[in-house]
TrEMBL record:
Annotated ranges, domain DJ-1/PfpI: 6-174
Superkingdom classification of source: Bacteria
Record's protein name: ThiJ/PfpI domain-containing protein
CDD domains recorded: GATase1_PfpI_2
InterPro entries cross-referenced by the UniProt entry: Class_I_gatase-like, DJ-1/PfpI, INH-QAR
Organism field: Streptomyces xiamenensis
Cited PANTHER family: ARAC-FAMILY TRANSCRIPTIONAL REGULATOR (PTHR43130), HTH-TYPE TRANSCRIPTIONAL REGULATOR RV1931C (PTHR43130:SF3)
Pfam families attached to this UniProt entry: DJ-1_PfpI (PF01965)
Biological process annotations from GO: regulation of DNA-templated transcription
Length: 198
């Protein structure tokens, strides 16, 4: 029996690089250095092909969306590529189906806009990139928009603010899934201790 639990990071054209790669660094460091925890992380795209990100980086996917292993956690990044997803009926329907199958949905930056468009944030607290807070409220006025939050944990759904906030959200995810001690080890391992120069 396969007891491995899985985190899938969605990739799509014009995804914001750090939205996906920041959490990947945190989660891959954790799962590769502490395999006994029983988790793995992988990336996937709609057809399994590589994607060109928002700033020109091309990233390969490990799986295609329809043939990847079952997920325990879905991470939906943001970026300019989320804009067409807001009206992509197929993608929104796929997300609604994941809500029924995946225990924990997470997002970075404008990934939460896509969740909102799919109706997944109705009546719930959430956040997004500071530049898209109004858009989040417009997409679903029932959302309790947390404007100052770095991330919002609402049980089976976690949203985070923009870009680098995905690193903080991913560390919080490690706390939830493996405990504070493990998250501290990961944070030290990736030497994440921000001291901005300005």
């Amino acid at each position: 029996m396969d007891e491995m639990r899985r985190i899938g990071i969605a990739l799509f054209p014009r995804v914001e690089e750090l939205d996906a790669i920041g959490p990947w660094e945190v989660l891959a460091y954790w799962t590769r250095n502490f395999p006994g925890d029983g988790w793995e992380v992988f990336t996937f795209s709609a057809d399994g092909a590589p994607v060109e990100c928002a700033k020109g980086l091309t990233v390969a996917a490990h799986h295609a969306r329809d043939t990847m292993p079952a997920l325990d956690v879905l991470l939906h990044p943001g970026g300019q590529g989320t804009r067409p997803q807001l009206t992509d009926a197929e993608h929104l329907a796929w997300l609604r189906a994941q809500r029924d199958r995946v225990p924990l949905l997470t997002s970075v930056c404008t990934g939460s806009l896509v969740y909102a468009a799919a109706g997944l944030l109705r009546g719930r607290p959430a956040t997004t990139h500071w530049g898209s807070l109004e858009r989040l409220a417009e997409l679903d006025p029932t959302i309790e928009v947390r404007r100052e939050a770095r991330f919002v944990d609402d049980g089976d759904l976690i949203t985070s603010a923009g870009v680098s906030a995905g690193i903080d959200m991913a560390l919080h995810l490690v706390v939830r899934l493996a405990g504070e001690e493990r998250a501290r080890a990961v944070r030290r391992g990736i030497q994440y201790d921000p001291e901005p120069p300005v």
